Amino acid sequence: MNPFEQANSPILITVFIIGLLLWLFAGRMNYKKDKYEFENTTSGGAVEYKDYKHFTKSKNQGKLIGCLGSTGMVLMFISELILGPLWFTNK
Prior knowledge:
mainly alpha; 2 helices
């Protein structure tokens, strides 16, 4: 392993861990959002919000969850794409 690869390995592992944490955090947020929607669903199947403010908060939270989850997956994918060959070479 050359010095350049050795220097980047801890950085890439850190990027992978950050991506994993973002992905897990987004999953936890999505669970809480789904639980709230399930508990506040009417018999007609519509989600009942307290007011418009709670509706927009839930809508924006859904967008944030998508962005965080996607960012986490991209960070994990890119770091693993680079780290994979470094871990499995016998040099």
